[in-house]
Amino acid sequence: MSTPNPQHARIRSLEGYHEAYHLSIHHPAEFWAAVAEPFTWRRKWDTVVDSDMAAGRNEWFAGARLNITENCLDRHLATRGNKLALIWEPNDPKERHLRLTYRELYQHVCQFANVLMNNGVEKGDRVCLYMPMIPELAIAVLACARIGAVHSVIFAGFSATAIADRVNDAQASLVITADGLNRGTKQIPVKRVVDEALETCPSVRKVVVVEHLGWPVQMDPERDVWYHEETDNAAKTCPAEEMKAEDPLFILYTSGSTGKPKGVVHSTAGYMVWADYTFRNVFQVEENDVYWCTADIGWVTGHSYLLYGPLLAGSTSLMFEGIPTYPDAGRFWEVIDKHSVSIFYTAPTAIRSLMAEPLDNVLSYSLDSLRVLGSVGEPINAEAWHWYNEHVGKGRCPIVDTWWQTETGGIMISALAGITPSVPARAGLPLPGVLPVLLNQDGSEIEGNDQEGYLAIKQSWPGMIRTTYGDHDRAVQTYFAPYPGYYFTGDGARRDENGLYRIIGRVDDVINVSGHRFGTAEIENAINENPNVVESAVVGFPHDVKGQGIYAYVICREGACRNEADMPRVEASIIETVVAEIGKIARPDKIQLVSGLPKTRSGKIMRRILRKVAEGETGNLGDTTTLLDPAVVDEIIRGAK
Ligand code: PRX
Prior knowledge:
Blueprint: H1 6-9, H2 14-26, H3 28-36, E1 47-52, E2 57-62, E3 65-66, H4 68-80, E4 84-89, E5 98-101, H5 102-118, E6 126-129, H6 135-147, E7 150-153, H7 160-170, E8 174-178, E9 181-183, E10 186-188, H8 190-198, E11 206-210, E12 224-226, H9 227-232, E13 243-244, E14 248-254, E15 262-267, H10 269-283, E16 290-293, H11 300-312, E17 316-320, H12 331-339, E18 343-346, H13 348-355, H14 360-363, E19 372-376, H15 382-392, E20 399-402, E21 436-439, E22 445-446, E23 451-457, E24 467-468, H16 472-480, E25 487-495, E26 501-506, E27 510-513, E28 516-519, H17 520-528, E29 533-543, E30 547-556, H18 567-581, E31 590-594, H19 607-614, H20 631-639
Parallel strand pairs: 4-17, 6-7, 6-8, 8-11, 11-12, 16-17, 16-18, 18-19, 19-20, 30-31
Antiparallel strand pairs: 1-2, 3-13, 4-5, 9-10, 14-15, 15-24, 21-22, 21-23, 23-25, 25-26, 27-28, 29-30
Bound molecules: adenosine-5'-monophosphate-propyl ester (PRX).
């Protein structure tokens, strides 16, 4: 048997993949010690891995001391100080883009780390960021990590109420925001949204505001400071705080099947090794690549594959403020040509929205620089895969369809570009360190190929979720208790005849809208806040662009909706409530007012029926005899949108 060696840190052949995979599963400690070796450690680990999956306890590199920003920045200065770390492309192509070398980024991060400390942030404090996709966001995230503060980025599409929920759960002491945000033709006054949120957030003592649009904002003299004024006077060096391997690096809120989003906590060392290893191997990154991940830093993809992965690997990462369709549907391709992007990582929903536009939008660009394409966030349908392959990759760029989750920290199942098989509608083989299994409902493992079941992971991996913030039991109940000894993903999957995995979709009450995760209960809770509403049930339905759309069945209070003419007003008011409670991203696509919901005698809503109706499949609703009032189903079918 071979022993781990540096080649396992970077797989270069199919044979190398199989060898690395075998080692990682049978000798994880040796394997990951070899992978972790080249990082900058203040102190090396005592134990590589200590895991009790059934208890939801997983520790990696215990005893080690490090700071992740020394690995993202300081360690590159000697050899890559003048290499571009970040290219920032603004929303408006007529505005100037910005380039930061590793040395410049290092200085900005140090400066802002000093600002955070000057404003009272200490190691272990939580800092929330609600910001546009501007360089200051990347700098601020890294500055938090530099001083050992736990960052929690909140996607800047969430509402004031959603911000307040997250800030209060994290008990954040400082919030970073901007005067406003550009998104295509729209401009959004984010500081105002933060001001509204913070009315109910007593833990927040300071707010740092980036001047981005030059809009007038209300500054609370006791609480608010300007980013540029604070950084002007701050030193350009800042010693990195020494962190323990298992110290939390960040919290990222994500939706589950219960009503309240949970704060997924990632550790320092394990996350670092996983983000770097998966980034380099999946995309087969070379020194001169210009890499572009279109995800927002408000989601995990932006954390692992816009920021940490690329910077750990010493790559050049492109950050884009805008949207794929502004000023026209050729923007992605224009940016690729402009900056000679060689690796491009985006979401199926973006591809589908661009596919619907005239082909000239993509054919007018050369796209010669492209080498590797990636997809993330939801299953990529075969049609979108072929369009991406043919018109963007020109049939010469391997496509990696990367399956993973906020909780997994990094990519779990995916082709390694050009090395392991890349087949449409298949994520592919597991990465080294990932031991996927398919389970029956009773928790027994399904053996062999050409099989379908619940997707679970049998062995601890370095990047996995450590806990849910402030409530470890919730993490255990959600991920580790359903099938003891396994991490339960919430997804269903098929292992095809060649052992490649195809992700089918969620098997829990989570829907994936344009790659954004929502719990149906979360949306129902929001709808139920509307004064017209008695009860609601939300399901997903297939949507051409978004993957899944949101279909809401709503029972109104007596008198709230007396006739058909009342409906548009009531529906608009429900949408307004959801936008206020969660944000525009959770707007229901369809609302159907109903007089009752299909419930069993024990009061459980039969979502299966609602899903079928939403999908337009009313021919075969299955057994409805256990319903309390089967007549309600006929009414729902008649009123279906
Ligand atoms: O259902 C899977 C789907 O997105 C879920 C994870 O969502 P989130 O935590 O928001 O992370 C998104 C970015 C990693 C998964 O449970 N999903 C993600 N990637 C894929 C996918 N489904 C199929 N294929 C994928 N490549």
